[in-house]
Specification:
Elements (H helix, E strand, L loop, with lengths): L25 E5 L4 H12 L3 E6 L2 H15 L3 E5 L5 H15 L4 E4 L14 H29 L2 E5 L12 H21 L5 E7 L6 H6 L6 H4 L10 H12 L10 E4 L11
Parallel strand pairs: 1-2, 1-4, 2-3, 4-5, 5-6, 6-7
Bound molecules: hexanoyl-coenzyme A (HXC).
Hexanoyl-coenzyme A (HXC) binds next to α4 and α6.
Amino acid sequence: MALAAYVAPIVDSTSVFKPEIFKGKVLFCTGGGSGICRGMTEAVMRHGASAVIVGRNLDRLTKAAKELSEATGQKCIPAQADVREPKTLQNAVQKTIEYFGRIDFVICGAAGNFLAPISGLSENAFRTVVGIDTLGTFNTIKATIAHVRASKGSYIHVSATLHYNGTPFQAHVSAAKAGVDALSAVLAVEEGPHGIRSNVIAPGPIADTEGIDRLSVKDGQRARDFAFPSGRLGNIKDIANATVFLFSDAAAYITGQILPVDGGCEHLRGFQ
Ligand code: HXC
């Protein structure tokens, strides 16, 4: 089936939202050293926030933090932690508070993925991905919540759309992301009375990310791996724009929601 010739434009949030809506705010982002979460961090910083990016590889984080600071004119510092290890996350939070004094926004974005059939997946492989994605989200919430209560802040969890249906070779990630969606919903209803919002962004196929690299067969085949109602693959900026919206006051009454940012791909499943 031929898809429409329309190609959705890639819009920069700085041309839509005011530049200083996040002035004085502090973002704590797991997985912020690369890919989608780095793009989300950059967008929030471009609107005035400072940031702490959290991950396992300190060299990569340090380089990314320097580049983000230079690109945005805001402060970004690295904090080494493995989201599966609560103590390391607590240390990253302590570093954040010592340096910036507060946490307003949290992105739970650290994730792991690879293609493997359920019959060939070891228990440890399954446990590893659920450990990073689901337990890692839980640990991040636990480590940050007191500070997010104090600021009446907001969480965004990075999930996926692949668990809405049966996606082959993604049993581990599907189970993990379903858990992430559930954690966000519970957080929204439990912590709403404390002024906290919690939402999920569910990216579809996003170009130039480790996720798409791991899940695509060959570069030349990418365009045929998915159907594109919007005429193109997603872009990191598409996820970044949704992030700015959900953290902004424009989304003040939006909590407990899952926002797929997938160009409508999920709705085309029946045609593939
Ligand atoms: C089968 C595999 C495997 C593979 C690892 N394992 N890779 N099994 N196929 N390709 C198994 C190992 O054999 C081992 O099980 C277990 O998983 C743990 O592997 P380790 O390498 O020891 O774990 P670790 O060093 O913690 O690495 C975690 C990881 C790794 C997830 C396996 O790939 C990683 O660190 N990834 C982070 C970056 C990443 O994945 N980014 C993409 C996220 S994209 P055994 O039984 O041998 O001990 C994303 C988006 C999803 O999440 C949505 C896309 C549309």
